[in-house]
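A favour, since you know our structure tokens better than I do. What I am after is a single protein written out in full by you. Could you add the entry underneath, on a fresh line?


***
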Amino acid sequence: MARTRRYRDGVLEAEDFPAEEISEHLRDDALTVWLDLGAPTEADLALIAAELGLHELAVEDAVHSRQRPKVDRYDTHSYLTAYSVVLDADTCLLTTAELGVFVTDRAVVTVRPGGEFDIDAVVRRWDELGHLAKNGVGFLVHGLLDYVVDTHFAAVQSLDDLVEDLEDTVFDENASAQETQRRSLALRKSLVTLRRVVLPMREVVNTLLRREDRFVDQAMTPYFQDVYDHVLRASEWTESLRDLVTTIRETQLNIQGNRLNLIMKKVTGWAAIIAVPTAITGFYGQNVPYPGLEQSWGFWVSTASIVLVGGALYAVFKHRDWL
């Protein structure tokens, strides 16, 4: 069901009125209108496009979801796409929710293709910043972007904690290698997903800060600048965590390689020691005459040779840390 709000001179005047009344309300220059469409059909978007004079390419982007975060500028309006994110701390997996926004001089239309985007959280953000409502659509767009970027920041903070926990398990002898690898790969996947939605936001917010965007006036510029600062911090943090997870993964592989080399070194040392009695007993087992044949001293010589040579090899390998 469509949700609506109407502000008059910075004061919330009405909400949840019929969407068909939007064009009538926009005749009043003192009004700013918001319309939200959750999982709309093509017919719904066509109706809104006719009411507000939206460009067909912008409507096409709203119909076909999974757009990259961006801002498209048209003669009478702008269309932007952004993604909020939610991190599952147990599985380390990140889920995204797409939001499309049509912005005209006095109207904002939000489109949620899958319906996953938490628009209620945005409404609460608008209510908390009600003193900025007098700035019209700039206030509404700021609340949307502020919420989106806050989800990015919260996700990257949680990922930072998870990466620190992963670091602690790298040198833990009791940690499961399979579980450590699974979590490191899940974290890397989440960071790649987060990077795809965070990095383009720098261009989105920077574009909105330019003077030619009419809805970002002088009063709202510091607030958009604050959002831009959070975007930069989140993107830089994401990049550093992505590099750190890669380093942790490489360290895990190096540790596994070193452990394998150590095991192979020990196995080779013991094989060399075991080869001594095998060689000596094989020599005395020849079916030809040899010194000490059928003599007691021959048995003792072979036994002593096994003990002395085997003991000498063990001492040498132990000294060289091969065992």
Summary: The CA atoms of residues 3 and 36 lie 5 Å apart. The beta strands are 3-8, 11-15, 31-38, 70-73, 78-88, 93-103, 107-112.
